[in-house]
Amino acid sequence: MHVIIINGSPRVQNLSNTDKIISRLVKGMKTEDKGLTTELYSISDRKQWEEARGAFNKNTEILIAIPLYVECIPGLLLEFLDTLEKKNGDTRISFVLQSGFAEASQLRCGEEYLKKLPGLLGCTYGGTLIKGDNFSYRFLGEEQTEKPLSAYEAMGASYIRNKGFDSDEARAFSGPEYFGAGMRIFLGIIFATAAPLGFKMMAKGLGCTKSLKDRPYL
Ligand SMILES: Cc1cc2nc3c(=O)[nH]c(=O)nc-3n(C[C@H](O)[C@H](O)[C@H](O)COP(=O)(O)O)c2cc1C
After folding, report:
1. What is the per-residue pLDDT across 65-87, written as a single tens digit (0 to 9) for each?
2. What is d(CA 183, CA 99) in angstroms, rounded to the nearest whole number?
3. Is 180 helix (H, G, I), strand (E, B) or coil?
4. What is the pTM of this model?
5. Domain extent listing, the chain
């Protein structure tokens, strides 16, 4: 199989969590299809858009991997999708929709849009792999990210076996739809106490020199 993979994140490729997820999916795909070939395009780099459009037009197996940005699909990806021309029904588009918050319910609104999108582009829908809890990959070391990222390899293999993500395996991967009351209370305490300190340290690591409460435009 030859799969065109589009990373829909506006974040540059080497810092993108989506890129790390894609790498693991491809690794898993190759365990099921030894002859698999892929082409990867990153929407964050506008210089790749023309070639990505050409690959979309010429090929029939497309995977678009998307981070949730403000409860929605990133605007830059929408801008790219707007430039695509309608196809003739011979192409399947599958999606990965991943986010920072862990409950799958956060991603359902975006999923509803993705169910409609292939039809608007004259393509068929190959399902969406939904998964939260991906926020910290770019901040953590390889040792800490190995377990969650390696789980995507099984989903890559599943993508080949099931011809996309419209499968019970993919649906089970999403994890909890909503956290139970115990977890919600625990997270409430963490976000009121330890998390702000963690965010402060992350911001400092990214070069932030002002308080996170700073309001420069007021
Ligand atoms: C501007 C921005 C908005 C975001 N909005 C959400 C959101 O609404 N819900 C959520 O669960 N995660 C949100 N996230 C977290 C990202 O979905 C998550 O970190 C993702 O793994 C980023 O992938 P990327 O590095 O490939 O862009 C947001 C991140 C950014 C930077």
Report:
1. 999 999 999 999 999 999 999 99
2. 18
3. coil
4. 0.94
5. 2-178, 180-218
pLDDT, tens digit, 9 for 90 and up, residues 170-199: 999 999 999 999 999 999 999 999 999 998
Would you call 15 helix, strand, or coil by DSSP? helix
Q: For residue 31, report the distance from its CA to the centre of ligand 1, in Å.
A: 29
Q: Checking phi first, is residue 172 left (phi over 0); if not, alpha (psi -120 to 50) or beta? A: alpha
Instruction: Output the residue whose Cα is nearest ligand 1's atom 1.
Output: 69
* pLDDT at 142 exceeding the cut of 90: no
Residue 195, C-beta contacts closer than 8 angstroms, at least 6 positions apart: none
Residues with CB under 6 A from ligand 1: 9, 11, 16-18, 67-71, 98-101, 106, 132, 134-135
2-178 placed in CATH 3.40.50.360? yes
DSSP assigned state of 65: E
Residue 215 binned pLDDT confidence (cut-offs 50, 70, 90): very high
Give whole-number Cα distances, 200 to 109, 206, 209, 211, in Å: 30, 10, 10, 8
Q: Order of strands, edge to edge, in the sheet holding 37-42?
A: 37-42, 2-7, 61-67, 92-98, 124-131
